[in-house]
């Protein structure tokens, strides 16, 4: 099965047939909507960086995680999240003496952990956000069943 996330059209297509609305509004320092004290760290390296949009490319969907088993914050992730192997290099930030963002460096680190999920908030840390919890549940159910027998690919354009 192939999922295609068209970031300009804000649509996730399922095998080119059905589609649901998505967003990828990232709260960043770059756009002035992240406070310098809200430091985000890369996965898995734990280096401070300013969040980026979901990376373009072709990625594997690796799992469906439900709140009952993984106990994540429902306000941040809804009741289900779809895990991918998407990753990208990001610039590491230097922090000041108080642990706040100070300045971007020329050093880079790898960042992963990019998901598809619903959120009560309009922004994410780079994940693709379903605009409806019901649609997140529907797509996660289809993906979960499909993963039992075949690979699920996510292309982000």
What can be said about this structure in brief?
With 157 residues, the chain is mainly beta. Helices cover 15% and strands 41% of the residues.
Characterise this structure.
The radius of gyration is 16 Å and the shape is elongated. A hairpin with a 4-residue loop joins strand 1 (2-6) and strand 2 (11-14). With 157 residues, it is mainly beta. The protein contains three helices and twelve strands; from the N terminus they run ββββββααβββββαβ. 15% of the residues lie in helices and 41% in strands. The strands form three sheets. An eight-stranded mixed beta barrel has the order 1-2-3-11-10-7-6-12. The longest helix is centred in the C-terminal third of the chain and has 15 residues, at 133-147. It has helices at residues 67-70, 74-77, 133-147; strands at 2-6, 11-14, 18-23, 40-41, 48-49, 57-66, 80-84, 88-95, 101-111, 115-118, 128-130, 153-156.
Question: What's the helix and strand layout?
Answer:
Elements: E1 2-6, E2 11-14, E3 18-23, E4 40-41, E5 48-49, E6 57-66, H1 67-70, H2 74-77, E7 80-84, E8 88-95, E9 101-111, E10 115-118, E11 128-130, H3 133-147, E12 153-156
Parallel strand pairs: 1-12, 10-11
Antiparallel strand pairs: 1-2, 2-3, 3-11, 4-5, 6-7, 6-12, 7-10, 8-9
Radius of gyration: 16 Å
Give the CA-CA distance, first to last residue: 17 Å
Biggest beta sheet attributes: 8 strands, mixed, barrel
Shape: elongated
Q: What percent strand?
A: 35-45%
Percent range of helical residues:
10-25%
List unreliable stretches of 5+ residues: none
Count of alpha and pi helical runs = 3
- Total number of beta strands: 12
The chain-level mean pLDDT equals 95
Quaternary structure: single chain
Helix/strand structural class = mainly beta
Strand and helix order: EEEEEEHHEEEEEHE
Strand order, sheet with most strands? 1-2-3-11-10-7-6-12
